[in-house]
Amino acid sequence: MNLQAKFALYNAATKIAIILVIGSIILLSLDKISYKHLDNRLAKKRQKIIKNLSEREIDSLLHNQYSFTDYNILKEEFIILTAIPKTSKLSHYIAYITEKREIEGDIEIYRILSDEFEYHNKRYKLEIGESMTAMQAIKNTVRFYTLIVLALVLLITLITDYAFANFILKPFYKIVDQKLNKVNDPSLYPYNNIPTTTTDFQFLDNSINGLMRKISDMFKLEKQFIANVSHELLTPISVLNGRLENILAAENMPQEHEHKIIASLKTLNRLKTIINSLLLISKIENEQYSKKDMVSISLELQDIYEDLEDRIIAKNLSFSNRTTMAFHFMGNQALIHILLVNMINNAIKYNKERGAIDITDKLEGLQYHLTIADTGRGMPTAALINIFNRFERGDEKDESGFGLGLAIVNSIANFHQIKIEVSSEPDKGTTFNLVFPVQHL
Which CATH number is 293-440's, of 3.30.565.10, 3.40.50.620, 1.25.40.10, 3.20.20.140? Predict the structure, then answer.
């Protein structure tokens, strides 16, 4: 999970918690607020009734069975006035209760104000009721819209937080993209700072710049070291090689000494080959080669077959080039030639007598596949893991190889963003599949 997603998730969790707490408080307080509002309305009605009450109305009330009831057609309100005896001291406490009452056969839940008062030395009980049905509907509506508002607030805050996190982290992604992902050569590193007002990102940018300066210096020293080492090693090897050849040309050379000198020349040639191979790998990995050639795979395969035809015939191999695509791509022609030579050379070297080499190609999606298959010794699955490592040989019995051929192949493939797929089975052969990336098409 990236940093932006973590920010968004953290903000979402905290806001959901806050909104849940606030929503719970609102919903729990809704009943109390509703009852308070309804009680205030009942108290105002009581004051109005008592203020407008007259002797004539009281006498009329007493004459009509000492009770008076008034309610509207929807039975949402009622007023009951009842004469009561003076059995105790008058209480000035106004009670509010919620209970069911039957009005003309209909039972409803009412909020009722109950009060006792005296008028002209007579005591009365006043009950004013208001239906809870309307209030319950209002509470349900308020709850519904409260939940909608909270959900909208949550959604808006999540969107704004995500957008804000994206805006804040934009310089960070620019630093990673421009100064890490897109830099293949330290000498081409852009040292200009990414514009940002965030001090943490400024510190990161400056730290990466400082690190890349050190890497660039080390990179230059490595190039210089490789050049110096290759020169210092190859020069004495060439001198020794020349001297040994001169000694070998001398007359009356004992045969025993001649064999030793020939063996020494072979050792020097092996050492020279190893140094040149390591130097080639180092130059490839340091991207000291350009990729400006338009390379034709079919032409390269034809040239390689002409160069290796004698070896193919000497081993009685069947060589089948069944490529049909006129595939071209931008790369380094010399390196691609070396890659294909090494692979076909291995197919010849490790093949069995009267074996076969089959080369095919295909276009799969937007990728070009070049397959080189042989019927040679093959390798166990465990050996395939290390075949591209330096000085690793797929066949441990082979003493002539240096274990650098496939390491060179791997370096050239990585340099051109070519993917190599390998499958092999002992005594049945090995198949290499080169997958050229879409940008080369």
Answer: 3.30.565.10
pLDDT per residue over 398-424, tens digit each? 544 446 788 889 888 988 889 999 999
What is the b/e burial string over 185-205, where b = at least 16 CB atoms within 10 angstroms of the residue's CB?
ebeebeeeebebeeeebbebb
What token pair was written down for 422?
Answer: 């390998």
Contact 304, 340 (CB under 8 A): yes
**Domain boundaries defined on the chain:** 3-138, 199-285, 293-440
Q: How would DSSP label each residue in 350-396? A: TSPTT-EEEEEEEEETTEEEEEEEE-S----GGGGGGTTSTT--S-T
204's tokens: 């990161």
Which class for 412: exposed (0-12), middle (13-18), buried (19 or more C-beta within 10 A)? buried
Query: What is the Rg, in whole angstroms, of the alpha carbon atoms belonging to the chain?
Result: 48
Q: Six-digit token pair at 63?
A: 């004459």
- Return the structure tokens found at 308: 């290796």
Low-confidence ranges of the chain (pLDDT < 50): 64-73, 399-402, 440-441
CATH number of 199-285: 1.10.287
Parallel, antiparallel or unpaired: strands 356-364 and 318-321? parallel
State pLDDT tens for residues 307-331: 899 999 999 999 999 998 888 888 8
Output the DSSP codes for 80-114: EEEE----SPPP-PPEEEEEEEEETTEEEEEEEEE
Residue 368 exposed, middle or buried by CB count within 10 Å (0-12, 13-18, 19+): buried
As a whole number of angstroms, the distance between CA 430 and CA 301 comes to 19
Q: Which amino acid is at 6?
A: K
CB neighbours (10 Å) of residue 410?
19
